[in-house]
Amino acid sequence: MKLTLKAALAASTLALIPATGMAGEIAVIVKTTNSNFWQNVNKGATAAMEGVSDHTFSFNGPASESAIADQVNLVENAINRGVAGIVLAPSDPDALTPAVKRAYEAGIPVVIVDSGLSEDAEGTYQAFLSTDNCAAGKMIAGKMIDKVGKDGKVAVMSYVAGVGSEIGRVGCFVEELGANSNLEIVGPFYSQSQMATALNQTTDILAANSDLVGIFGANEPTAIGMGRALEQAGKAGAVAAFGFDGNGDLQDFVRNGTLEATAVQGSFQMGELGVKAVMEILAGNKVESYIDTGVVLVTKDNIDAPEAQNVLY
Q1: 3-state class of 181 per DSSP?
Q2: pTM of this structure
Q3: Signal peptide span per the entry (predicted)?
């Protein structure tokens, strides 16, 4: 794949990269290693390294997505050991900005994946690869309206408040419902990306809102907990449920009708294209400043089709 870039960004980027930094370790640092989604990013990064002799790569992340200080420390440690480049999925847009600035000052190129950084970080990283989370949120809202109509209650099961992907994904979902229906939003509720928390929250919401018509689980562990709660409460299929991401549990929910659909990101592509982008930068080549890794709405009708199988994991 040929990657291209904005010239001004490239010039400032490449001027910072020392000659000794052209080869070496590429540190891939994600939000948590305890998730199939992020392990699929790891698979993509591994694929990008096939046949590469100039670089090695490491894969790290904290125990949970809410362990933000631990992720900051992983980035700081990578800078301190002089890695050649970093692929980072920031858990918090503000907390990770100082560390990325430090990498920039050290001449280490950084490629951001999945979630964005704060505006203060602008110009300190070289590319951003992600799903268009706002577009994805709007798409799911449209499908929700198509399924349940324009009146009733819809619960929003989110993950970590303020994360870049969550702001776009959940914010645009809620905005789209508000602009195109009279649906009442219950929540959002934040699971901290913990499946058990999402299960308990959903159980409580179902008990307190017998008239609920729809529910949205906005990332993998949240949607899994939500789906299990729906099944345990005997509400699977009775409440229109939409998920996000595409591991085996969520695929099973789609197949058995617990989920109407799940929106699946190109997690493998984030890892593969993120590492390739760093290697292109280190080689003095140009990369796009933004690369859309896409999203596919997986339903019972298309789950076995190539378009879905290429992104499920």
Answers
A1: coil
A2: 0.83
A3: 1-23
| Gap between the terminal Cα atoms of the chain | 22
Tokens, residue 89: 């999925």
Same fold, 7-131+266-294 and 133-265: yes
DSSP string, 51-109: T--SEEEEEE--SSTT-HHHHHHHHHHHHHTT-SEEEE--SSTTTTHHHHHHHHHTT--
C-alpha distances out from residue 242 to 140, 239, 266, 289, Å: 7, 10, 18, 31
The proportion of the chain whose per-residue pLDDT surpasses 90, expressed as a percent, equals 89
- Fill in the amino acid letter for 289: S
pLDDT of residue 209: 98
- Read off the pLDDT of residues 1-35 as tens digits, 9 standing for 90 and up: 333 333 333 334 444 444 334 579 999 999 999 99
Please list, in sequence order, all residues whose beta carbon lies within 8 angstroms of the beta carbon of residue 164, skipping any fewer than 6 positions away: 90, 93, 114, 115, 116, 117, 133
Domain 7-131+266-294: which CATH number of 3.30.70.270, 3.50.50.60, 3.40.50.300, 3.40.50.2300: 3.40.50.2300
